[in-house]
Design brief:
Helix content is 60%, strand content 10%. By secondary structure, it is α+β, with helices and mostly antiparallel strands. The chain has two domains: 40 residues, no CATH class; 174 residues, Glutaredoxin. The protein has a five-stranded mixed β-sheet with strand order 1-3-2-4-5, sandwiched between helices. Helix 5 links the parallel strand 2 and strand 3.
């Protein structure tokens, strides 16, 4: 138990208490008068030295960020096979690349649209990245309709047609509907009737549900979200920043 010597007062009292061993500082053993003095001196010290509060907040944020990063790394490790090789998501870039980039995206998401040219730039400049696109429509019925159309295109016309539709939908100006999507199919030389007939198929419903379940396990609630090899990156990230992370990953491999 700590008692307050009469000669020790003011800021010195607070400093003595704050720097004392943790086991020696037991507020429950103090009298009300001692606790009042302690509280007043700590308050006075913090008012005179507000940078201490900023340092404490920064330290707390660093610890929280480290904890979240550790948790995210564990989530990626536990779901890595489904993230990278689920058997239905579109895969592009260098199929034999040494780095796999997974993107959870929504066609109606403004940041996904900003990220699209950044991802294209990254793949073009690097040349050794494998890209996996996860259809994750979370912004309403228009998003769901766009994703169903994209997946239906892949099932009917293959991966190349899917990529054409994917790129077109990312830049699509209006809300997708039967008329606009049919027109898009025809502009790309695709079988609009076959694609539209496939959109509500159980296969597509199951695929989108599996991706949503994966996102829930990964605690992913927004788009775009990237999984860069073993690292979970939440939100928009420019190509140059992803390049730095990739370079560090390759350096660590030796």
């Amino acid at each position: 138990m700590i008692r307050f010597p009469r000669a020790l007062s003011g800021v010195a009292t607070a400093l003595a208490l704050l720097t004392a061993p943790a086991q020696a500082l037991d507020l429950s053993t103090m009298s009300e008068a001692e606790r009042a003095i302690f509280g007043a001196e700590v308050r006075a010290y913090l008012l005179e030295n507000p940078e201490v509060i900023i340092e404490a907040v920064n330290l707390l944020e660093q610890r929280q960020a480290q904890t979240e990063a550790t948790q995210d790394e564990a989530l990626v490790a536990a779901n890595l096979e489904e993230l990278q090789n689920d058997g239905y998501s579109w895969v592009g870039g260098n199929l034999d690349g040494d780095i796999t980039l997974v993107e959870f995206m929504d066609y109606r998401c403004g940041y996904c649209r900003r990220a699209a040219p950044e991802v294209a730039q990254l793949l073009a400049e690097d040349g050794n990245i494998r890209l996996v696109i996860k259809e994750f429509p979370i912004l309403g019925e228009a998003s769901m309709m766009a994703s169903r159309f994209a997946v239906a295109t892949r099932l009917v016309a293959g991966d190349k047609a899917y990529k054409q539709v994917h790129d077109a939908l990312i830049e699509f100006g209006g809300d997708p509907n039967d008329v606009s999507l049919r027109r898009l199919s025809e502009e790309l030389g695709l079988d609009a009737d076959a694609i539209m007939a496939q959109m509500d198929s159980p296969e597509i419903t199951q695929e989108l549900a599996q991706t949503r379940a994966l996102a829930q396990r990964m605690k992913i609630s927004g788009t775009p979200t990237f999984v860069l090899q073993s690292e979970l990156l939440r939100g928009y990230l420019p190509a140059d920043q992803m390049s730095v992370i990739i370079a560090e990953m390759r350096d660590q491999r030796g």
